[in-house]
Amino acid sequence: MLTMTSLTLYPLQYEPLVRHALEEDLGRAGDLTTNAIVPAGVQASGRLVARRQGCIAGLEVAVSAFRLLDPHLTVVFHCHDGDVVDAAETLAELRGAAHALLVAERTALNFLGHLSGIATATRRMVDAVQGFPARVTCTRKTLPGLRALEKYAIRAGGGANHRFGLDDAVLIKDNHIILAGSIKEAVRRVRDGVGHLVKIEVEVDTLEQLKEALLCPIDAVLLDNMNAAQLKEAVRMVDGRVITEASGGITLETARDIAAAGVDLLSAGWLTHSAPALDVALDLEDLAALQD
Amino acid sequence: MLTMTSLTLYPLQYEPLVRHALEEDLGRAGDLTTNAIVPAGVQASGRLVARRQGCIAGLEVAVSAFRLLDPHLTVVFHCHDGDVVDAAETLAELRGAAHALLVAERTALNFLGHLSGIATATRRMVDAVQGFPARVTCTRKTLPGLRALEKYAIRAGGGANHRFGLDDAVLIKDNHIILAGSIKEAVRRVRDGVGHLVKIEVEVDTLEQLKEALLCPIDAVLLDNMNAAQLKEAVRMVDGRVITEASGGITLETARDIAAAGVDLLSAGWLTHSAPALDVALDLEDLAALQD
Amino acid sequence: MLTMTSLTLYPLQYEPLVRHALEEDLGRAGDLTTNAIVPAGVQASGRLVARRQGCIAGLEVAVSAFRLLDPHLTVVFHCHDGDVVDAAETLAELRGAAHALLVAERTALNFLGHLSGIATATRRMVDAVQGFPARVTCTRKTLPGLRALEKYAIRAGGGANHRFGLDDAVLIKDNHIILAGSIKEAVRRVRDGVGHLVKIEVEVDTLEQLKEALLCPIDAVLLDNMNAAQLKEAVRMVDGRVITEASGGITLETARDIAAAGVDLLSAGWLTHSAPALDVALDLEDLAALQD
Amino acid sequence: MLTMTSLTLYPLQYEPLVRHALEEDLGRAGDLTTNAIVPAGVQASGRLVARRQGCIAGLEVAVSAFRLLDPHLTVVFHCHDGDVVDAAETLAELRGAAHALLVAERTALNFLGHLSGIATATRRMVDAVQGFPARVTCTRKTLPGLRALEKYAIRAGGGANHRFGLDDAVLIKDNHIILAGSIKEAVRRVRDGVGHLVKIEVEVDTLEQLKEALLCPIDAVLLDNMNAAQLKEAVRMVDGRVITEASGGITLETARDIAAAGVDLLSAGWLTHSAPALDVALDLEDLAALQD
Amino acid sequence: MLTMTSLTLYPLQYEPLVRHALEEDLGRAGDLTTNAIVPAGVQASGRLVARRQGCIAGLEVAVSAFRLLDPHLTVVFHCHDGDVVDAAETLAELRGAAHALLVAERTALNFLGHLSGIATATRRMVDAVQGFPARVTCTRKTLPGLRALEKYAIRAGGGANHRFGLDDAVLIKDNHIILAGSIKEAVRRVRDGVGHLVKIEVEVDTLEQLKEALLCPIDAVLLDNMNAAQLKEAVRMVDGRVITEASGGITLETARDIAAAGVDLLSAGWLTHSAPALDVALDLEDLAALQD
Amino acid sequence: MLTMTSLTLYPLQYEPLVRHALEEDLGRAGDLTTNAIVPAGVQASGRLVARRQGCIAGLEVAVSAFRLLDPHLTVVFHCHDGDVVDAAETLAELRGAAHALLVAERTALNFLGHLSGIATATRRMVDAVQGFPARVTCTRKTLPGLRALEKYAIRAGGGANHRFGLDDAVLIKDNHIILAGSIKEAVRRVRDGVGHLVKIEVEVDTLEQLKEALLCPIDAVLLDNMNAAQLKEAVRMVDGRVITEASGGITLETARDIAAAGVDLLSAGWLTHSAPALDVALDLEDLAALQD
To answer: Which of A195, C221, E53, E126 is the most exposed place for a label (fewest CB within 10 A)?
Structure first.
C-alpha cells in the first residue's frame, strides 16, 4: 500500500535552521570540553531514545545536526515522524565520530524534543475527539523562526494546518470588522482584492454576528470563545454551508465536548506556544569498549 | 538610586530576529486581510496587556515589531522587563498606523508571550527558594535560534544564566569522563587546553564521583539527579570549595527542598523548553471613533 | 472616499532586494566614474519620467534606492502605482545628493522599468477584456527572486494574483493525475492532507476530463489550451459551480474572445516572464546652474 | 581541439540563487499538491525540451534545482549552453525522485527560459550583423539580483559583456560632463583617480562632442542614439584610435545597418530587460508505467 | 576649491561589516562587564586619538560602530581619511551613551587601526618615491572579507588600486602562459573572450618574455622580481607603449631605487597583508565629573 | 599515543568564510583570465609550500577553498596546523581541476598566510619565554570577521586564548572602575550580575590598585604597562591567589624578561593585528606535461 507524503520535508527546508542552531551552540570557540578531552578519530555509537511516551516529530531534522558535523554518519531509523512511541523506546541508532555525537547532541535534542512535544500534544487532542468528525488545528501563535517546523509537527501529530501566515488565506477579525463598518462590507472589500484561490474565514463572537456572516460569500467561520451549547447552536445555524472552527481556550479536557457540538475544526494556540517538550535523549554506547 | 543594566539589549541584537519573524508572517503576499480592508493612513491606538499575572520579558523586543512597520509609532511604557504585573494590567500604550498595529500584532505577541512565559516560570522558582541563598539558573535546552533572548528572559525573571553555548565554559559530563578514563584525566586535559578565563564544572552522579572531582582543580560541580538528602551531604563534602549546582527534574514543587539542602544553584531545563507562554494581548481602541 | 490598500508594500518587504541590487551594481569599488568626477556635497534635482505611455508599478521601490544612499532625499510624487501615465509624464521629482542620484539611477530604473512593464502589459489585457466579467491573472512563471514584486505589479496593473507558490493553494496537474490514477483519487488524497483554508484547482485538457473533475469537491478548474468554442462549452458545463480559469497561449489579441466565452479568469505567464520593460528615465536638472 | 571555457560557471556562483528561488516557490508549507498526491519513493524520468527554436543558456543552472532536492538525480545532457536547438529538441534527460522533478520544475524552467530567452535574442542580433566586425554587447539594464547570470546568457548567445557594474570600468555620461564642466576635465579627474587596469569610455551625443573626446586619453566612445550615417562619420573620425560602441534603440531590424557603419560594438539594453523567455518545458515520462 | 571624492564610501558599503563585527564581539550575552557596572542613561564623551604618527583611514567606518549602538551620538571630526596626523592628535570627538562608547570601542578601533595601518604604510611608500612618476599600488593579497575596505585604505594613503578581483581585469601569469603554450596564444584567447572595457596585463619574469609580450596587444606588463637594473632596461624596451608595473619583494627601503628605474607602478602585497596596525585609542573624558 | 584535539575546527565553522572570500575574489564575472585561457577538463597538481620558516595554521581552511570549486580534489597533507616547517617545505599536495587550483589559489593563500603569520609570531613568543611557566595569550584586537580563526591560529602557535568577546568573561577596565567609583564596587556589581561560570579579571595600572583589587573576589588581574621590576613585585603581592597577566607593549625582545618576573600570562595584541603574513605559495606542477 502506498504511503502518502504530507510529512515531506526537504533538507533544503530545514538545514539552514539546523546549521544556525549549531552555530548558536558552538559560538566562536567551539566545544571547549569535547575538543580538549576527546581524541580525534574516536568513533562512537548511540541511540536516540524517548524517555516518555509520545508522538515523534523532527527525527530527520535532529539527525541532520549530527550529519552536518560528520557526513559519514550512519543511521538506522526505528521509527518515523508521526509514530507514537513508548517510554524508553529507541528512535534511531547512530554511528559516527564521537565528536559529532557529543557536539551536536544538544542541538539535535532541542529540535526533537520541541517538535515531538507539539506532535504529542496534538496527538492527544486528536485522540480526545476520536469518534467525532472534528479535526484538530493550529494557529499563528508559533515561536519566531520555527513556524514551518512547528506546523509540520502539528501534521505529524495528526492535526491539520491552519494559515501559515497573513498571506495564504483571509481571516477577518473583530478589528477588521470595526474598521470596515460591518462584516458584509469587510467581506466585500476582501472579495474584490484577493485571488481566486484564497479562502475567507470570518471570526465571530456571537450567534448574532454569525447570522450576519452567513449572509456573506465566505468559506469558514471561526467561532470564538463559545461554549459547547453555543457551538451546537452555531453548527445548527451554519448547516454545512461553511466550515466551522471552534477556538479559544480549548484544552485536552474540554476538547471532546466541543467536538461533540459538531464543529469541523478545533484550533488551539497552546499546541505550538506552550506544549511541553517531549523528554528525549541520546544514549551513547560502547565508549568504554572503544577506549581499549 | 542607580539601576544596573544587566537587562541591556541593543536593537542590533534582536532586530534581525524580529525582522525575520515579520517576514515569516507576511510571507510573499503580505497581510491579505488588512491590506484589503483597512484604508491607508488610518491611525489607531492600542494597549499591550497581560491577561494573566506574570513577569514581563521582551517588551521592547515586541514593540520593535510594530516600529519596523511604522517608524513614527509612539509608545508609552507602563512597565519594564523584569516587572511582575497583574492580570489585565497595561504594559504599554501604542499609537500609530492601524496597518502596523494589525499586521505586527501576532509577531509582537509571539515574542512577548514566549519570553514572559519563561520569565514568569523563573520568577516563580526564584520566589519558591526565597530565604535560601540558592539562585535559579537555566540550561542549553533552548529553542533553536532563540537562545540569547531566552537567556535574557531568565535574567528578567530574576534567574542567573548558565553557559550560553559550548564555548564559554567547560562542563565535563559522563561521556567525557568515560572517554578520558577518569575525572582527573578529563580535568587535566581541559586545564591544558583552555584559556585562563574559562571556568570548569564537572557533572557527578554520585557522592563517590564527587569525592574524586573535589581532588581536581575545578570551579563547580553539577550534582545530577540527587535527592535533597544526597544534596545536603554533597554540600557538606564540598564545604564551600567549589560552586554547587543541583540539576535534574527540579520543579516548582521540589525547588524549595532542594534549595534547603544548601546548594548554590538550581538549574532547570523546562524553564526554557517547556514554560507555557504568558497570555498577552493587544487591545485596540477607538477604532469606531476613528471611523467617524 | 476611502482608498483600499491592496497595493500596500512595507519597506521591510522590498528594501533587502533594493539593497542587494545596489550592492550588485556598486561591486567592490563603487561608482568609479562618479566618485572621481563629482565633488562631495553637490546637490542635484531630477525627475523620474516615463518615456512611453504605461501603467506604473514600483515607484516607491525605485525611490528607496536613492534614499538608501541619501537618507535626506526629498521626493514629490506626481503619481502612484497603478496609475496610467502618458509618454513624457513626470512620475516623481527628487532632490538630494548628486552622488545618490547618479549612483542609484540604474538600480532604481531597473526596478521601475521591469515592474511597470508588467503592470502595463496587465493593464492592456485588463482593458482588452473590458465589459466581460473575466479577470486577468498571473502564474508562477516569474523571475527568480522577484516573485512578490512581480505579483504586486500584476495587481498594480489591475490584475488578480494566482498562487504565490506551491504552498498557498493546490493545483492538480496532468502528472499528478497520472500518478494518482484519476482526478477523483488525486482530489481525495489532497482533501485529506490540506488545511481548511486551502483551495483546490484542477487542470483539465479536455471536456471529458472536466466532466470528471466536476464530480469532485473542488474550487476551480484550469481549462488548459482550449479554444473559445471549447471554453464556452466548458463554462456551460460548469454552470457557476466552480471558478473557471482559461490558460495557455493567451495574448492581447486573443484575450477578448476568450473572455467572451464567459470564463472567470484568464491567466498568462508572459505577463511576468516576457513583458517588455517600460521605458523610464531619470532626467537630472539644473546641473549647470548648480555649478555656478 | 580545445574548447575554451568563457562559459565557466561554478555552482558556488549560482547555487545560492537557485536555492533562494526554490525557497521562494516552496514557501513555508512546501508543495501541497505533490506532497499530498505523490507517494514517497516514486522515481520518474523526464526530458527538458525546447518548445521553440532558440539558443540555450542556464542548462546546468536549471538542473541544479532538481539536484538540490534529489542529490542522486542522474542527468544526460543532449546539448550545452550556447548551442542553438530546434523546436521540440531534447536538452537533457533526467531521472530521479518524482517529488524532485515535480517540485523543482517551475524553478528550473524559470531560470532556463529567462536565460535562454536572452541568449536567443543575443544570438539573433549576432547573426544579424554577421559579416561585419561588430560585436553585440549588453548594458547594466538587468533585472535586480540576476545580473551575473544574464551577462552569462549574453556570452552564451555569442555576445560580449559590457561593464558588470559601476566599479569595473569608467563610463562618463552627459551628467558627469556637465558636472565636470567639459569632457577634458571629466577625463582628467578620472585618470587621476582610477587604477591602471581600468578603461575609460565616454558617451557622446554629437560629432562635435566626439571631436572633443578624441583629444583625451580614453579607450572607447559610446555613440549615443546616432543614425547609420552619423555613425559612419564617427567611425571615420575615430579612425581606429579608440573602440566605438553604438547604442540607443538598436533592434534586430536596425542592427545590420548600424554594424555596416563600421562600429566595433552594438549595445542593446532590451537583450536583458525585455527579451521574451524561450518556451521550455519538462516532459515527464513513464509515469503510468511506474504506477504498475 | 573642489575636493574630488575618490574616497567616497556609502554606509551601505560598510555597515554590514561593522554590524557583523559588533555581533562578533557581543556574542550571545553582550558586554557582561559594562552591562553589570554602568547604569543605563549615563552619557559620556571621548576622543578618538592616534598614539603614533600616521595616515588615517576608516574614521567614518569606526564611528559607525558607535552609532549603531547609539543613533543619537554626536561627532565632531578633527580630520578626515587620507590626512596624516601626529602622535597624540585627536581624530574625532564623540558624545553619547556611555554604554555605546564602551561596548563599541574595540570594534571601532579594530577597523580604524587596521585601515590606518595600511594607509600609513602606503603613504610612506608614496613618500619614498616622491619625485618620480611611479605610483604605489596594491595586490589581491588581502584579508578575507575586507578587500574593499583595504583597497580603500590604499587610496587613503595616496596609492592607486590594482584589480579588486579576478573579474575586473586580466592578469596573465606564468601558469596561464604554460597552459596556453605561449604568451601570444594566451593573449589571443583572452582578447576573444573578454569585453571591450577589460584591460590585459601580462606577468613576465625575464626580458626575453617581455620582448614576446610586447608583440601582443596588451595594456600593461608586470615585471616580476626584477632588480633595478633589469627594470631600467625593461622600461627602455617598453618605451611607453604599455604600462609598467614592478612587483616582488618591494620594501620601503628598495622602493626609491625601483621607482628611479622609471616604472609606472610599484605594487606590494605587504601593504594589505602585513602592514602593522596604527596605534589608535579612545580616550574617555569627564567620567568622574559625570558621576556627580 | 592519543592526540588531543584543541585544534578541532568543523567545516561548518569556516566554510561560510571561505565561500565568502571566494565570492569576493570571483566578483560577478568570475576569473576572466583563467576562463578564457584554460580549457575545461584540464587536470593539474600542485604543492602548497612555505617560502619561509614558520608555524602553520589554516591548512585545512585553505584547502577547502580549492575543494569548494572541485569537490573531487585529492589532497595529501605533509603537515598539520601547529607544525613548524622550514622554508621551501611542502605543506600539502593537491591534484584536481586546473581551474580550481588557479581560481582558488589567492583565496587559499590569503587565509593560510595570515593565519600562519599569527601562529608563527605566537610560536616565537612561546619559544622566547621557554623555561618559565608563563603562557602567551591574545586579545580582542583582531581583524573584523576573522576573530575565531585568528584565535585558532594563536592556539596553533602554542598560545592560549583570552576572551573571544565581551560576553564570555568579565574584564573590568579603568573606565568601568571610574564609573563604579571603586574596584570594590565594580566587582560587587559584576558578582551580582553574572553567571557562576563567568570569571572576573581586573585591569590595574599600579601596585596601589593591585592591592585594592586583591581584596575583592576576583579570578585574575591584568597588570597593564608595568615593567619587569613592577611585575615582579606584583607577582609577589599576588602570591598565587589569582592569575596574573602582563600586558602592554610586549614584544619578542621584552617577552623573556617579563616572563622571568613570574607572571602566569603575557598578552600581546600585535599577534593578531600586526603579525606579518607567512610567505606561502602554490607551486603548480606538470602543466607542460599535461599539455601533451
So the answer is: E53
Ramachandran area for residue B286 (φ above 0: left; ψ -120 to 50: alpha; else beta): left
CA C17 to chain centre: 16
Cα–Cα nearest to E148, from E279, E276, E9: E9
Chain E residues touching residue C23 (CB < 8 angstroms): 12-13
Q: Residue A262: left if φ>0, alpha if ψ -120 to 50, beta else—which one? A: left
**E246 pairs with which residues across the strands?**
E223, E266
> Residue written as cell 523620474?
C48
Write the CB contacts of D276 (distance below 8 Å, at least 6 apart in sequence). C270, C273, C274, D117, D121
CB-closest option in E6, E10, E148 to C28: E148
Report d(CA A19, CA D237) in Å as an integer.
61
What is the distance in angstroms between the Cα of C99 and the nearest Cα belonging to chain E? 9
Q: What is the pLDDT of residues D182-232, one digit of tens each?
A: 999 999 999 988 889 999 999 999 999 999 999 999 999 999 999 999 999
Is A141 an annotated catalytic residue? yes
CB pairs C-D closer than 8 Å:
219
Grid cell at residue C265: 479568469
C-alpha cell recorded at residue E275: 602592514
How many residues are listed for chain B in this entry? Answer: 292
User: What is the rounded distance in angstroms from the CA atom of residue C36 to the CA atom of residue C110?
Assistant: 24
Counts for chain C of helices (H) and strands (E), in that order? 12, 12
Q: Give the closest-approach CA distance of B24 to chain D in angstroms.
A: 8
For the record, the C-alpha cell of F158 comes out as 602554542
Helix and strand totals (H; E) in chain F: 12, 12
Report the side by side order of strands in the sheet with A74-77: A74-77, A90-97, A43-50, A280-285
Q: Which residue is catalytic, options A19, A47, A173, A188?
A: A173
Say what the pLDDT of residue B3 is: 44
- The counts of H helices and E strands in chain B are 12, 12
Q: What is the pLDDT of residues A138-188, one digit of tens each?
A: 999 999 999 999 999 999 999 999 999 999 999 999 999 998 999 999 999
| Residues 6 or more apart whose Cβ sits within 8 Å of residue F74 | F94, F95, F96
E224 in catalytic set: yes
Q: List b or e across A130-165, with b for residues whose CB sees 16 or more CB atoms inside 10 angstroms.
A: eebebbbbbbbbbbbbbbbbbbbbbbbbbbbbbbbb
Distances (CA, A) of C16 to C19, C68, C96, D19, F135: 5, 11, 22, 17, 47
The CA distance from B60 to B45, in Å, is: 17
3-state DSSP helix/strand/coil percent for chain E, to nearest 5?
45, 20, 40
